[in-house]
Amino acid sequence: MWQTVYLSPAFAVSLAAFLGAIAGGGLCALAHYLPRSMEARWAEQCREYLASREATLPGEAPSPDTADDIPTAHAALAPSPELSVPPSWPAMLATALVCALLFVLCAWRFGGTPLALAGMVLLGALLLLGLIDLGTSLLPDSITLPLLWAGLLVNLQGGLTSLPQAVLGAVVGYLCLWLLFHAFKFCTGREGMGHGDFKLLAALGAWLGLSALPMLLLVSSISGVIIGLTLVRLGRAARGQALPFGPYLAVAGAITLLGGGYAGAPLFGLG
């Protein structure tokens, strides 16, 4: 199924660069607007709740504390003007260049086949999730969950790995970070990561299989430690400050997809 269509390498790489540049600009805009629209929707739900609290029972007046808090809460939940502000052109250009490079590497890795197109979908989603998490510490379910199901569908006919590997990768990937989260919380009383990280690793497991999880965890952990220590040294982050883990998982996913390290794909073509 995944080898039924084949394009010449030169045409595939050129087409990948073109598609990547276009997709990158769109992903940058989506990374800018999606979390803000989510926050606006949450604020609207809170305003509706506050309005229902104001509609007290006949003859019942709100307490002085509640009456003082309601106007303040309404002001805090006012619609953000950022929804109408577009992302900057330098950010869109940089994202377009990165996306074009990723798509070219994917076309070089898989050739002009439908599997290359599937890989570009994964890389685009990882870039989008990394940008959103980096800016807002959010990993939207509207992206992570469809990405998980897409990985299972791609591997239904053995696209990147076998279906049993994909199913086990999704389950074990989720459980790995879920157990780590609760162990860390039990020992420290603090939450070390968000639930979106569980779902992102599960999605990567669904795409790349159970055997890819050690590589994914190793690369994401090492890159997280190196970048975290660098930020502390440069004064850009405080010791103990929570940093989003999603971007490191996204980087690990891209490296594993393009470099190998999962069932049926030796690491960087070796072996």
TrEMBL record:
Assigned GO CC terms: plasma membrane
Gene3D superfamilies per UniProt: 1.20.120.1220
GO MF annotations in UniProt: aspartic-type endopeptidase activity; methyltransferase activity
GO annotation terms (biological process): methylation; signal peptide processing
Keywords, ordered alphabetically: Hydrolase, Membrane, Methyltransferase, Transferase, Transmembrane, Transmembrane helix
Enzyme class: hydrolase
UniProt-listed Enzyme Commission number(s): 3.4.23.43
Transmembrane segments: 12-34, 89-108, 115-132, 166-184, 204-232, 244-265
Residues spanning the signal sequence: none
Span of domain Prepilin type IV endopeptidase peptidase: 120-229
UniProt xrefs under PANTHER family: PREPILIN LEADER PEPTIDASE_N-METHYLTRANSFERASE-RELATED, TYPE 4 PREPILIN-LIKE PROTEINS LEADER PEPTIDE-PROCESSING ENZYME
Family the entry assigns: Belongs to the peptidase A24 family.
Protein known as: Leader peptidase (Prepilin peptidase) / N-methyltransferase
